[in-house]
């Protein structure tokens, strides 16, 4: 691979002159510039833009941190984010915090050592002094995705979770369901709290009380949902429908129902958020709330790059992305 030394040798100038010509860091006569660029072409030399930017103190790399790199949501977000950033001339580093605030802080420090221009974070949102410690660790522009932190100084892009839960609940009510089970996630996590709030508001709007015995809280892992479904479906008056707010819950719910010999939707209807699973991948296909990940990524990238460039200043912005309900086969009329 040709180097800057090869260019200097062909042009019969110093390496300093080649560097000054290519990077524009010092004045070079027109004659020498012509010789250098002719040598660059002859040698087939391609300057490393990342190295150039680092020498100038400029980075075109953004760090993305998500809770679990293996989930469909994180994979879709990473792909969409990489597309949105590359269209604007930026690269992306990708890491998982494993929903561990300590690991999240280490990943932020690691990205900082790589001199990233900014960060996009699906924050863990829990742990002692979390908001304070997160703010202290971030020394670049940053945008939060999926989750909102109370009192945060960072911009955020998230789903309209309240509306999403209302769409899901209204659909079940329209089908005649009244005894609806709801699986709540980790307490204090904005998507979980907002989705449960949307469910409650839609039920209240319809004048139907929420059956507290059908609400299961702190269900944020697959095995939690498996156990919750076993408890729900063995009640004297079991639910006719179950609302899952993420894929982990859906996986546990479907496994739990299968383990009990129950069928969807004949024995119980199931509806879910995070609709990234293809319809043909489930039996039956799951009615779900579909998140617009491409728009989330685009909005987050635009906010971050505006902060990096200084074209956006002032108070943090919050953008809500509208979801859509995909009706499939897992819910029945009763």
Give the CA-CA distance, first to last residue: 70 Å
Let me know the number of strands. 12
Helix content: 40-55%
CATH homologous superfamily annotation of the largest domain: Response regulator
Main beta-sheet annotation: 6 strands, parallel
SS strand fraction: 5-15%
What number of structural domains do the residues give?
3
SS summary, helix count: 12
Structural class comes to: alpha/beta
Strand order, biggest sheet?
2-1-3-4-5-11
Low-confidence parts:
none
**Would you state the CATH class of the largest domain?**
Alpha Beta
Tell the overall outline: elongated
Mean pLDDT: 90
Overall CATH architecture of the largest domain? 3-Layer(aba) Sandwich
Order of SSEs: HHHHEHEHEHEEHEHEHEHEEHEE
Based on CA atoms alone, the radius of gyration comes out at: 26 Å
The CATH topology of the largest domain corresponds to: Rossmann fold
Walk me through this protein's architecture:
This protein has helices at 4-11, 15-23, 30-43, 49-55, 72-86, 101-113, 130-137, 161-174, 190-205, 222-233, 247-259, 293-309; strands spanning 61-66, 91-96, 118-121, 142-145, 155-159, 180-183, 215-216, 241-244, 269-272, 287-290, 318-321, 324-326. It is an alpha/beta fold. The chain folds into three domains: 4-47, 434 Repressor (Amino-terminal Domain); 61-159 and 293-322, Rossmann fold; 161-291, Response regulator (Rossmann fold). β6, α9 and β7 (215-216) form a beta-alpha-beta unit. α10 packs across α11. The N and C termini lie far apart (70 Å). The model has no long low-confidence stretch (mean pLDDT 90).
